[in-house]
Amino acid sequence: MSDIRLTGITKRYTRGSAPAVDDVSLTVADGEFMVLLGPSGCGKTTLLRTIAGLEHADIGTVHLGDRDVTALPPRRRDLAMVFQGYAVFPHLTVAENIGFGLRMRKEPGIEEAVRHAAGLVQLDDYLDRYPSALSGGQRQRVAVARAVAVRPSVLLMDEPLSNLDALLRLSFRSELKALAKELNTTIVYVTHDQVEALSLGDRVAVMQAGRIVQSGTPMEVYDKPVNRFVGGFLGTPPMNMLPARRGADGWTVAGHPFAVPHDGDHLLAGIRAENIEASTTARPGALPGRVRLVEPLGSQLLVTAAVGEEDVKILTPTDFPAADGAELWLHAAPERVRWFDPATERALGR
Ligand code: ATP
């Protein structure tokens, strides 16, 4: 096991272009499961490949444990990687695939190590099969087993679930989490799927345009986004962002009086859909609105309400009487509102 320390990593693919990774510093603790999350093109894969040694940073250093590995090739870094497309060898059996890295390293006890790794991903009964006789999920498990079989001190994964269908993705995600606990290896995991990031990571580093804009526990980044981008990127639906203005009669949000605990003239009120309580009767401090759209999600209703000029998304119990066009009142507890400066888009705190 080992910790990972990235210091001031900058990587440009072509001279003069915007950096794919821009001055990133990040420490991943020994045994920690760190998720790199962000939209397509934000630099996640480049950063992961820089840790692996498949890319080299223009500026910055990579330390694994107490070793400076910045200039070392991948094979000298003691790490394993699982890629998006399950790169299993079609002409090798499951057992041969899993043992591949061990044979390359000429390590003893291959058979036992293969059986152990296969057991971790529940492939014990498939050791003699060829990949063509496996499902997508099973092939991806072979790739994971092959990576963990070498007992790397660092395990890197790049969107390993993205080729699986929705149901398999869900079950494999749980398996991966259980496996990570068992392995106790330092893991860096790349995804653009925020649900996956929140469910898997001990910590999540949210990336935007080559930079890490926020890192923290899943609940920290979800509940306390540092800026509008993070609030919008995490959560389904994204955090509501309602304009607040201060006029002669005090603050209004979406045109209605509202208590705002900050100075200034213009702010944005960030409120998550599940933190808004909808009611069919007026109550003090609630914003009046009208139902525009109702989307049943099975366990809840996703209601879009028009409040002034704004659309507000609310999650309600399924028995909430949300008929199209019906009046409703929306209330959010003050401690559940996160305030942002519209000019900088940064959070002001609560
Ligand atoms: P995705 O989720 O789509 O894989 P990502 O967040 O992993 O995206 P990267 O693949 O790291 O992003 O790419 C970051 C930026 O670097 C993008 O603008 C991309 O076009 C560019 N880039 C990546 N690889 C190369 C390359 N080999 N040559 C030139 N530019 C590249």
UniProtKB/TrEMBL annotation:
<dbReference type="InterPro" id="IPR047641">
    <property type="entry name" value="ABC_transpr_MalK/UgpC-like"/>
</dbReference>
<keyword id="KW-0067">ATP-binding</keyword>
<dbReference type="InterPro" id="IPR012340">
    <property type="entry name" value="NA-bd_OB-fold"/>
</dbReference>
<dbReference type="InterPro" id="IPR008995">
    <property type="entry name" value="Mo/tungstate-bd_C_term_dom"/>
</dbReference>
<dbReference type="InterPro" id="IPR027417">
    <property type="entry name" value="P-loop_NTPase"/>
</dbReference>
<keyword id="KW-1278">Translocase</keyword>
<keyword id="KW-0472">Membrane</keyword>
<dbReference type="InterPro" id="IPR003593">
    <property type="entry name" value="AAA+_ATPase"/>
</dbReference>
<keyword id="KW-0547">Nucleotide-binding</keyword>
<dbReference type="InterPro" id="IPR003439">
    <property type="entry name" value="ABC_transporter-like_ATP-bd"/>
</dbReference>
<dbReference type="InterPro" id="IPR017871">
    <property type="entry name" value="ABC_transporter-like_CS"/>
</dbReference>
<feature type="domain" description="ABC transporter">
    <location>
        <begin position="4"/>
        <end position="234"/>
    </location>
</feature>
<keyword id="KW-0813">Transport</keyword>
<dbReference type="Pfam" id="PF08402">
    <property type="entry name" value="TOBE_2"/>
</dbReference>
<keyword id="KW-1003">Cell membrane</keyword>
<protein>
    <submittedName>
        <fullName>ABC transporter ATP-binding protein</fullName>
    </submittedName>
</protein>
<dbReference type="InterPro" id="IPR013611">
    <property type="entry name" value="Transp-assoc_OB_typ2"/>
</dbReference>
<dbReference type="Pfam" id="PF00005">
    <property type="entry name" value="ABC_tran"/>
</dbReference>
<dbReference type="GO" id="GO:0005524">
    <property type="term" value="F:ATP binding"/>
</dbReference>
